[in-house]
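residues and backbone:
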Amino acid sequence: MNNTNPYSKIFGKIPTENILRSSVIDKIFGEFSSDNPESTIYILTGIRGSGKTVTLTEIVEITQKCDEWICIEINSSANDMLKALAAQLYMHKPIFDLLTRSKINFSVLGLGVEIKGEPPITDYATAVEKMLKSAKELGMKVLVTIDELTATDASKEFMKQFQIYLRHDLPIYLVATGLNRDFEKMRNADGMTFLYRAPKINLAPLDKIAIADSYEKHLKVSRNTALSMAKFTQGYSFGFQTLGYICSESKLAFNDPIVLKQFDHEMYEKVYSKVWSETSKLEKEYMNGIANADSSKIEDIRTLLGIDNNHFSPVRRKLLEQGLVQTPSNGYLVFALPRFREFVKEMYILDDR
């Protein structure tokens, strides 16, 4: 009998039981596979735990099954991202063989051996361009993935060079993940305005029916219980996995105090505390108002905070962009994460202000 837990609490790892974001994956892969793609860059955004890294991994796994694709993963913290790209591209045998036959000398860069009589390539930007031209000659495409892209000097320089490759009609594509505010910093930096044309996909909550189907199948609960559990998670990917994991391990009902305590601990420790530390004092004040208002009506929240709509709207917009709140219907505002309201109430009291 297999007692392996189908759910996982590990960030970035594709769990045994996973709900594919098929529409996102199909959109990106379909676009990149077309003869004349409208975009060669996609950015996946969303709050921590929304499934960005898992979705990125799924895109890579699908792409790797196609012979015409070369997949390169670059660490967002690399000091020289072009160097990392060059080194990995050079390791692909079709590229290596063609470069060798063409007698292109990369020895100065520490790639390959010196070729007598041939002038060496002395910078990584040129080396990558030569390799991309080789890939194009071979009828191949290069997919670059970057997880948690941030606006560092290294990433800005890489993206500027990436744009040059695109202008030269070279077969290079990019899928990156990141928090919305980090991507905004990136595309607002000098020389990054071309990123405004790059589609940004904010990962929506998982389908609650699919969550209920999963719980019903693996946890052997009734349909009504599975639906209640799905509603509890609010479609939050990490919440879906964590609740499933705890219930699978404990064999307790999802609303048992022991389960709720463990769920809160996982959420607080792995996501919510980090999120709280990254919000401004004003945002925390507004979230406390949302948590303690008599209802989820925006009018009631503003009344509690003692502010008008002109002051409330900009902060509401920021909280929406961060994925912390959502508007279930016009004139209403609720938290978008499971048991985040309880967390906010406690943290606001504990916080040093």
The first strand starts at residue 41 and ends at 45.
